[in-house]
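Students often ask why we bother encoding 3D structure as a string. The short answer is that it lets us treat folding as translation between two languages. Here is a chain of 209 residues written in the first language.
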Amino acid sequence: MKKIIITLNIFIFLSCSQQDESITSEEITYEYSPQASLDLYVQGHRFIDQGKYKEAQKTYEKLTIIDPEFSKAWEGLADSSLLQSNLPQAMSYIEKALEINPSIASHYSKKALILYYLDEYDPSERFANYALDIDKNDVRAIIVSAAVKAHKGLLDQSNELFEIAINLEPEDSSIYYWKAKSYRVEIAKNPRNQSMIDKANEILEDVRN
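And here it is in the second language, the structure alphabet:
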């Protein structure tokens, strides 16, 4: 059982002839069980799935107060910040997660994703590889690595990685989206590859539907 002490400062303003202001402080003790922490973590994920990113952020913030050494809570904060397009804040949170626990693959793949959105492709690929060194089936790391290779014009290597990701998570529509998006950008540089551009657009349309 984990006990957290939170002190609430309650300001009481008294109107009197001298216009004095009195300030009192009340100490309240809350007890949080491991189950309470787990419930907050699950709730944060549920908000993410529902697209309620601000609510998810508030939930993960509560969790980091309850258990500041729970690195997955900081990763959750990074995720909710990323989904609100706050890349600097997302980077700060994921670095905190890595500082607490550098042995979790998802921390590295999340940082790889953030770096990708920051157009820092080489560091992004490096952190994706760190994740895969820990867990070769980290789908997010595979997707980011594939996207980076597509950006570099290494389409055969990129396609191989995307296929690995699809075989691991065939129901994850985001993989098809990433593949189509990466290929549409890179293949469009060569007008002779119109058939592949059409295929990329077809995949994107399927994902939207």
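Translate back mentally: DSSP finds ten helices and two strands in the chain. Keep this in mind for the problem set.
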